[in-house]
Amino acid sequence: MVATPPVDLPVAQACIDAVEAAAKLLESLGHTVFEFDLGIDDVDRFVSAFGAIWNTGMAGVPLVDPHAVEPHNLAMHEEALQTTSIDYVESVMLTQTLTRELAAPFGRDIDVMLTPTMAVEPPRCGTVWEGADAEPLMAVLNCYPMAAFTTPWNVTGLSAISLPLHQAPSGLPVGVQIIAGPWRDDTLLQLGTQLEAAQPWIDRRPAVS
Q: What domains, with CATH codes, occur in the chain?
């Protein structure tokens, strides 16, 4: 089992606490937990390449009425149209290379990896739109702390599961993410079942004011 430090962005204390508590729970269940560095230094390029691939798909969607599209989607569509075929191919090649590097330690050095699910507590409704009136793409940037820990595994296709093991002082659930190697969904389901049995969350409720 592996507990990994957060990526290079601010991480809410509740999310750090969630990982530390989950690591202790895993140890109490007989698993070996230690810190591990995947050694991927160029995370920003990885995220940028993923964004180029993901966003370019929008360029092929015809817009019958651009004024009927939300501003951030329109801005992303226009940005996608500026992506050259070379940019796209280079992004695909980069993600393929980094995927191999990310997947290599699983089954060799580690069985699974433990991270926060998000870098923030569940945000208040509507906060994702802050600043979007002046800059439509802010809506996408505001989502980054919610996706930073899950995006790499969406790109690699590695198995991952999120469990609401922790509860913040606010009463809101805080998730931890567990990642396993290629085609090891069985490992995650078995581990998730063990953790839920040891620390069930079905009856947990936040306070209602």
A: 2-198 (3.90.1300.10)
Query: DSSP E strands: which ranges in 11-68?
Result: 34-35
How would you write the pLDDT of the chain (209 residues) with one tens digit per residue? 444 434 467 899 999 999 999 999 999 999 999 998 877 666 777 778 888 888 887 777 788 888 888 888 888 888 888 888 999 999 999 888 888 888 889 989 999 999 999 999 998 888 888 888 888 888 888 888 898 888 888 888 899 999 999 998 888 899 999 999 999 999 999 999 999 999 999 888 777 76
**Separation CA 138–CA 145 (nearest Å):** 12
Q: Which two tokens stand for residue 80?
A: 């996608």
In the numeric block, which tokens belong to residue 12?
């809410």
